[in-house]
């Protein structure tokens, strides 16, 4: 099979962790006889520095002619610490989502037995947690217009807008995944306060009737936030709007013990993007200490979701699990033993794939 991939390392630790995911991808392609073609491009702060645009046209053109995008992270203190900056790395991420039609972010939340002791929650609460957060990506407050500030700088405003079409496609996607899992969907909104949330609930109730084999529950976002902490094993597929999803998925990721372990897939109308959820971690950039496992697991999702290659994705996940069982992990999840470097962990996983 021919695999055509756009590689966007981005900022901070992005280049280091993407390199290890790409090495694992190469090993898989060699092992299974796939023809891999990949090309690098700029995005984020590094793209601003070189071109003045956080998502250059050349990067978008590469993404559009690729089958999938393997993405690292964006963000830089240079721009984070300058509120007056009119061009920011995060604008590149929003532009990429909009132009590629990345309407759904999928984040699996799975606990690893060897990491339960690192969770801020009791082991009996998180053991066995296995659910999927599906976040709408292209609508809501982050994309609402108008937005701005008053000339005197004393008032700012953002608007939250959702259409029926945007809600229908994300909710249907949630039911599609639920049918392949434990057949339960949790629709999260704030329908007691927000007009957009009332439309979400109305549309979700209509669509739920089409899936009588799937259990549906409706939750306010504040209740969902509590439930994720109190009873994470009660969820199967959780679907929600953009800002709520941004907050809840970060909350959910922490219960597993490390942000460095969770991958994500952004499903698009054109090309889908596969990335870790942890951000650019600029403090660790260039130190070879960042955890590459979430990015390597994102490559596993890429094989499965972009190419339908389930066996290949499973081998990558098996390799990651084996590295953790062997204690070949970075300092963020080392259990008092040796902490391995980013490249050492990546090399171990690549060699595992080759030997299997």
Short description:
The protein has helices at 14-32, 45-51, 57-64, 77-80, 89-100, 123-126, 164-179, 195-208, 221-230, 242-254, 293-307, 310-325, 342-355; strands at residues 2-10, 35-40, 68-73, 102-110, 130-136, 148-149, 156-157, 184-189, 215-220, 237-240, 263-268, 272-276. It is an alpha/beta fold.
Can you characterise this structure?
This protein has 356 residues and is α/β, with parallel strands linked by helices. It has 2 domains: 1-101 and 282-356, Isopropylmalate Dehydrogenase, CATH 3.40.718.10; 103-268, 3-Layer(aba) Sandwich (Isopropylmalate Dehydrogenase). 43% of the residues lie in helices and 19% in strands. The protein contains 13 helices and 12 strands. The strands form 2 sheets. Strands 2-1-3-12-11-4-5-10-8-9 form a 10-stranded mixed β-sheet, sandwiched between helices. A two-stranded antiparallel sheet has the order 6-7. Helix 1 links the parallel strand 1 and strand 2 (35-40). The longest helix has 19 residues, at 14-32. It is globular, with a radius of gyration of 20 Å. The relative contact order is 0.17. The model has no long low-confidence stretch (mean pLDDT 93).
């Amino acid at each position: 099979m021919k695999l055509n991939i756009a590689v966007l390392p981005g900022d901070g630790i992005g280049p280091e962790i993407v390199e290890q995911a790409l090495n694992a991808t190469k090993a898989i392609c060699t092992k299974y006889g796939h023809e891999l073609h990949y090309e690098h491009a700029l995005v984020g702060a590094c793209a601003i520095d070189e071109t003045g645009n956080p998502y250059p046209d050349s990067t978008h053109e590469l993404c559009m002619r690729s089958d999938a995008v393997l993405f690292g992270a964006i963000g830089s203190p240079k721009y984070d610490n300058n509120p007056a900056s009119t061009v920011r790395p995060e604008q590149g991420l929003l532009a990429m989502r909009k132009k590629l039609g990345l309407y759904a972010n999928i984040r699996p939340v799975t606990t690893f037995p060897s990491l339960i002791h690192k969770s801020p929650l009791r082991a009996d609460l998180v053991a066995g947690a296995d659910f999927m957060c599906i976040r709408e990506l292209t609508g809501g407050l982050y994309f609402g217009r108008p937005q701005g500030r008053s000339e005197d700088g004393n008032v700012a405003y953002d608007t939250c807008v959702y259409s029926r079409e945007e809600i229908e496609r994300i909710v249907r996607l949630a039911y599609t995944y639920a049918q392949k899992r434990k057949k339960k969907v949790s629709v999260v909104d704030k329908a007691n306060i927000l007009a957009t949330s009332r439309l979400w609930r109305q549309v979700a109730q209509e669509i739920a009737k089409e899936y009588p084999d799937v259990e549906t529950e409706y939750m306010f976002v504040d209740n969902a936030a509590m439930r994720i902490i109190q009873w994470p094993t009660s969820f199967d597929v959780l679907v929600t709007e953009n800002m709520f999803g941004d907050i809840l998925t970060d909350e959910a990721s922490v219960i597993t013990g490390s942000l460095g372990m969770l991958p994500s897939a952004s499903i698009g109308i054109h090309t889908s993007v596969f990335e870790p959820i942890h951000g650019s971690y600029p403090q660790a950039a260039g130190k070879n200490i960042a955890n590459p496992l979430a990015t390597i697991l994102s490559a596993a999702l890429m094989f499965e979701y972009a190419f339908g290659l389930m066996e290949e994705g499973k081998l990558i996940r098996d390799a990651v699990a084996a590295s953790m069982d062997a204690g070949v992990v970075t300092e963020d999840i080392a259990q008092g033993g040796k902490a391995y470097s980013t490249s050492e962990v990546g090399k171990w996983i690549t060699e595992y794939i080759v030997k299997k």
